[in-house]
Amino acid sequence: MAEHTGGPTEELGEEGNSQPSPMSHSSQPSHASDLSPAPINPDPTTTYLLTRLNLPPTTPLTLALFPLPPAGERPTAPLIALVQVAIWSSPERRLTLQGIYDALMRRFVWYRENPNGPWTRSIRHLVSLKAMFVKIRLHGHLNPESTSQGTAYWTLDISQGEGDKRIRKRLYPGRPPVLEAGGESDVAELGDSD
Q1: In the chain, what are the domain boundaries?
Q2: What is the CATH number of domain 9-162?
Q3: Which residue, 47, 126, 147, 159, has most beta carbons within 10 Å?
Q4: Contact by Cβ (8 Å): 100, 154
Q5: Which of UniProt's keywords are assigned here (predicted)?
């Protein structure tokens, strides 16, 4: 059984449940139809991402959409947008954490120059926190007799919304619990009343 990390998790068999990317990564198209523009009505996730990035619906979704920053500077695009596009533009629309890191390092010099920087922890936190990032475990794809839990991939599920996977209550001594998402607490104030 797969480890549950607080968010939705899917388990896939050896074959996986992947769908090919609408973008061809080969340099030579196999058919003349491969040269046609993207479909007018792409899938909902692509539409969502292009809308969030204020781009036309026929724009190919790749990390090349984000401008390269000046040498030695971090990309100005929000990390969540970079991670979303890295995952969704991958051939199977899912990536391991290392796959996400590799995609960003291939596109941006700053990430290559800081391969073990805090940005890797930020990505790990981001995909674990946000509801739209869904962990998928592939079992037995290397060794069917293995006792490991398999390889964890991350994909996008926009039906989960833009919020966090769960609201956590934080307790502070002498103060009422505060909801992490900024809502009001329905728990009575802690401490003695005068």
Answers
A1: 9-162, 164-194
A2: 1.10.10.10
A3: 126
A4: yes
A5: DNA-binding, Nucleus
